[in-house]
Amino acid sequence: MGYYPVTGFWVISLHSLLRHWRMALVLAIVAVWSPWSVFVQGPDVGAPPFGVMVLVPTHQRAVALTFDDGPSPRTTTKILSLLMSFHDQATFFILGSQAAKYPKLTQLIVKDGMELGNHTYGHINLTQHSLTQDVADLTRTNHIIQQLTHRTPHWLRPPYGAYSTKVLHAAAECGLHLVLWTPGFVPVENQDPSQLVSNVVKHLAPGEIIPLPESGPRVAEEMGALFILLHDLKTLGYRSVTVSALARMH
Ligand SMILES: [Zn+2]
User: Fold this and answer.
1) Which residues of the chain carry a pLDDT beneath 70?
2) 7, 72, 185, 213: which one has the fewest Cβ atoms less than 10 Å from its Cβ?
3) pLDDT at 136
């Protein structure tokens, strides 16, 4: 675990975790009890990109809402409308296959001031493929995003949160940094939307990275929950920004 001084990310270094596995075990136990106190300042254990961003230490009342697995004709425009009506921003970790299928939606996400991140082409578990295959998948998705939006993605959210040293190498080769989520916000499919909102609000703190489903099964319920979440964030004096904007807030 270490502190990445250039951009102010808290990162977990695999190398460090392996070297200090006892400390990692203790931190894992502590995390269960108090997820917010885990990321304490430690020695810089390695240069980026060999780390995984899970939160950004900041005093500003800002968080990064993130949406995975889109774009989706069922939800993307609804999410965008809600975000814009609250003057909030978010990062969409999209699939290359979905972006190719829905180019206009992909472009709309950028046009509406949001950020796009790479979530692989077809939602593969990157740890189960070779380095070459991972690089090919990530490059393919990066190219689709670049061609459609003229933006270069900087962030990768590996499907299932699955990563290894090899995945970190593959991401680095493609110019991507890994972004997971703040401990305590494990994205669960078919999670009760209202429960998700109350969990977020209960544990709200500056600099958090919050994962939300973009294409869950209960659209109306999820959009209602997103409205309540955005409303509650405002009431508590918080705003949602893109991952890049959050990273600059340290
Ligand atoms: Zn996903």
Assistant:
1) 1-50, 188-190, 215-216
2) 7
3) 98
Ligand 1 centroid – CA 42 distance (Å): 31
Residues in Cβ contact with 11 at an 8 Å cutoff, skipping those fewer than 6 apart: 1, 2, 3, 4, 48, 50, 51, 52, 53, 54
Peptide bond into 49 cis (omega under 30): yes
**Which SS3 state, helix, strand or coil, does residue 4 take?**
strand
Number of domains in the chain: 1
Residue 21: inside a domain: no
CATH number at residue 201: 3.20.20.370
Task: Identify the domain containing residue 213 by its residue range.
Answer: 53-247
Instruction: Please compute, for residue 74, the number of CA atoms within 13 A of its CA located in the half-sphere on the CB side.
Output: 14
pLDDT in tens, 126-171: 999 999 999 999 999 999 999 999 999 999 999 999 999 999 999 9
37 Cα: distance to centroid of ligand 1 (angstroms): 27
Q: Which residues of 221-238 are buried (b: 16+ CB within 10 A; e: fewer)?
A: ebbebbeebbeebeeeeb
228 occurs within a structural domain? yes
The answer to whether residue 149 is domain-embedded is: yes
Task: Please report whether residue 195 resides in a domain.
Answer: yes
Q: Give residue 93 CA to ligand 1 midpoint distance, Å.
A: 8
69 Cα: distance to centroid of ligand 1 (angstroms): 5
Non-local CB neighbours of 241 within 8 Å, separated by 6+ positions: 62, 63, 64, 88, 89, 249
